[in-house]
Design a protein that fits this description.
The chain is mainly α. It has 18 helices and 2 strands.
């Protein structure tokens, strides 16, 4: 492989790592470091997405994927209908379109550029950050909303915490909003469970510290979403054990150790208060939403059934792409609170883009989930559970996660791309690039095809 090809992929890999780090620290920049630039920093990852798409295209290594190009064409059409038949605001339309024009293609670019080893490395870096992040949310949990650690976006001293229970607020960690806390620890949980099941090279002290961090994060986060995500991770581990029984011993040992650790931590006053708040939040919310069915079926399936049921009432070409986002709401009405269309993702897509375009966008995401799931499940029988662990605990977010929210968008795009990259054979990075011709022709190479 030529040095030119190596340099191309080095630049693209560095951009992906920058995208990853900005997902985690974008909120810190908007709250603590550069609060005066809070609004522009909302789209701080967009230039990186533009670079990744543009540079990949210029060098001839932009993935040739039908779902990617189909979604981009669909979005371009939705912008036209938004301007001619919908809200008519160009800024709002562009803001809404960036979700599928700039970020959705990154799924396939990450899947092409990253190797399986890169995926493991990113997981390891996440584990290094897990305990410090857990300590941060513990400090935020016990600090008043006026404290510096709880500053809101733009440096607001009203605080970034969200309603919790027992007088405590849900902490946002380094993120702009509390959903980032759930997304981060859910992401960390994937690699934590994976490394306990697989004896890959990793610092066991770091793995143990990360495990403790995740356990204490559950009550301090006061987040049912995090509980749901970690529950999916455990369920994926059970499926892996069922398909490959040699994992049974490990999962039993790890499970016993985790339960013992929880019992010990629960007796401490520091964690006991957080556990009480978490249980109160879970109980109160379940009663309001109608018990377990209301909590999980309706909340975590995102009102998909209602979205489809009400779709005939939406304008055929929708109210206009971008209108269902908080930023779009702010631009159109001057008020960023509430939802002009729908809080659920499917309802937003159909309301913004209309029945035809909205349902097609949903179908593309569902197709991506199906294909990733089939390939990840097949990998288990070959002794590789990494793709399944990444996919299985996050497919709900890929399918119907609220991508209008920047942190959710970033994590779900990243996770889908990492799932795709993890499907590659170990240490055979450039097998996917077999079609690349060398030397280059006029500075370009032949684009690899990513099969999903």
């Amino acid at each position: 492989m030529s040095k030119v090809m190596s340099d191309q992929h080095k630049a693209l890999k560095q951009a992906i790592w920058a995208y990853f780090l900005l997902i985690i620290f974008e909120g810190a920049l908007r709250k603590w470091v550069l609060p005066q630039l809070a609004n522009p920093l909302l789209v701080v990852r967009d230039p990186i997405a533009i670079f990744l798409i543009g540079y990949s295209w210029y060098k001839g290594i932009l993935p040739n994927n039908l779902m990617m190009y189909g979604m981009m064409a669909l979005t371009a059409a939705a912008v036209i209908t938004a301007l001619t038949l919908g809200h008519g605001n160009l800024t709002v339309a562009i803001y809404g379109a960036r979700i599928f024009l700039l970020h959705f293609p990154l799924i396939f670019i990450i899947g092409t550029i990253f190797t399986r080893e890169d995926v493991v490395k990113m997981g390891e870096v996440t584990l290094w950050l897990t305990l410090p992040m857990a300590i941060l949310i513990a400090v935020q949990f016990y600090s008043p909303q006026s404290a510096f650690v709880n500053r809101g976006v733009g440096g607001s001293d009203e605080g970034a915490g969200f309603s919790g229970a027992n007088g405590f607020f849900r902490p946002p960690a380094t993120f702009s909003f509390t959903n980032g806390t759930a997304q981060f620890f859910g992401f960390a949980g994937i690699f934590c469970v994976y490394h306990w099941l697989k004896s890959e090279k990793i610092n066991k002290l770091v793995l143990t510290a990360a495990s403790i961090g995740i356990l204490i994060a559950i009550p301090f986060s006061i987040s049912r979403t995090l509980t749901f995500m970690l529950g999916l991770t455990v369920a994926c581990a059970v499926v892996a054990v069922w398909r490959k029984p040699e994992y049974i011993k490990k999962i039993i040992v790890v499970g016993v150790c985790m339960v013992a650790l929880v019992m010990i931590l629960r007796e401490t006053e520091l964690l006991g208060t957080a556990i009480d708040a978490f249980m109160s939040r879970f109980t109160a919310a379940s009663e309001v939403e109608g018990g377990m069915q209301g909590t999980f079926v309706d909340r975590f399936l995102g009102g998909m059934y209602d979205a489809v049921l009400e779709s005939p009432n939406a304008p055929f070409f929708g109210l206009g792409i971008g209108m269902g986002t908080n930023a779009g709401n702010q631009l159109l009405t001057g008020d960023a609170t509430g939802f002009l269309i729908s809080e659920g993702e499917w309802g937003r897509l159909i309301g913004e883009m209309g029945v035809l375009f909205g349902c097609t966008a949903i179908l593309i995401r569902a197709t991506l989930v199906f294909k990733l799931g089939v390939r990840a499940l097949a990998k288990i029988q070959k002794g590789d559970i990494l793709p399944w662990m990444i996919f299985g605990s996050s497919f709900v977010g890929i399918l119907q996660g609220q991508w209008a929210q920047p942190t959710n968008l970033g994590f779900n795009v990243l996770i889908a791309g990492l799932t795709l990259a993890s499907l590659k054979p170990q240490r055979l990075y450039y097998r996917v690039l077999k079609k690349v011709k060398e030397p280059e022709v006029a500075g370009h190479t032949v684009a690899p095809r990513v099969y999903v």
